[in-house]
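Take a look at the protein record below with the fold in mind.
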Amino acid sequence: MGTTLTQTKINGAKPKKNNAYYIWDKNGERGSGVLGVKVTPSGNKLYYFRYIVGGKSKFIKLGSVSGMSLKTAREHRVELSALLASGIDPKEKLERDKRQVEEEKRRQEAHGTFGDLLEVFFDHLSSKHKDPEQRKRCLTRYKRHVRYYIEGQILPERKVNEITKQDILALLGKITPSAPVQADKIRSILNKMFELAIDFDDDPANYQKNLRFYTQINPVSRIKKQNKSKPGRRSLSLHEIQSFMDPNNEKYFDKRIFLLLKMSIYLGGQRPFELLLSKRSSFIGSHEMLVLEDNCTKTSVANVLPIGQSVQSMIDEVDSLRFIDEAQNPLLFSASNTMGHVDPNYVAKQLRKFCETTGFPKFTPRDLRRSVKNIMLELDIRRDITNYIQNHSFGDVAEAHYITYEFMTQKKIALSLLESKLTEIPPAKAN
């Protein structure tokens, strides 16, 4: 097998011109492997461990003689020999360990941070809105919440699966005393984010991405809501709505905004913003219907509505007020601003100013939607039909598809009843 390796023998080993050779240590223990030094033609000297498995020699490089002492090399040999004695192939184990280290390194590099989660969350929000303006408004709103209440409280480099319930409690605890309603909004945003992180790793669409969050726990889910927000309760009576739509009130509004609010009422309490996004071509006069496309609606589900003579007259009047050619801007309520349509904030502002100026009891566009629904219910229109008219969110895809294209007869009857009631001359008040 050779002679016992010494530092003197190693230092004295000379390179051979044409080939490398080994100097082996005298071990004396068969089957436990042997330590040796490989001398290359260039004069390099390397420690090696050799052992035999299945009649074949295997070699493991331990390191350079110049960078490792003989004592250390022998200690490595003892460790590798112990593996052999346990029935473990040392080379295979080292390769497995190396792969595990590399995998852990890749895991750490791909380990999603809170900053990564914010990007994923904003991308997710963007994908939910086909309309660029809706997308912009949604992102602006959420980014404002993140900037004011979350940034700085949770560092962007923090690993997502290291964020605990205590971290979230500390963040919300700073908001709750002075703004409990806002605290619930921030809680809701964080809850959505962590649910998204959990789902992200299990989505095959993300498998090729170099990003994983490695979390199965949502630290927000068990945190108590404050429930301080109050749902809107203002419901205008039929008489109030008729009074509001009185032609004499038109002077308090931009004419198109006044027509927008009236259309919203006559169409069963549609969201004004959805009408602002609708194209002139969405109102199909020949078929007496309005098609609110899925990229115009809050629920991302198209809504088809029958239109009566009153609504058709309003559409024609709005169209006559157009100052941008339809070829340049197809929206019915087109405008030259960056949105391309009348600003919904301007709608709310004019409505608020109208109430302040005239003393009319305060209400919002959302109150109109609720009020019209209540009037339809008072007309014995079934609640499910009012929900279809107002395009409430439905869970099942097949059901949503069915609702979009069915119930036209029921909708037409309901909206016709509503129109008759709205145009009914209210009884005069007794002196």
User: Anything to note?
Assistant: The mean pLDDT is 88. The radius of gyration is 37 Å. The beta strands are 21-24, 34-39, 45-53, 56-64, 283-284, 289-292, 303-306.
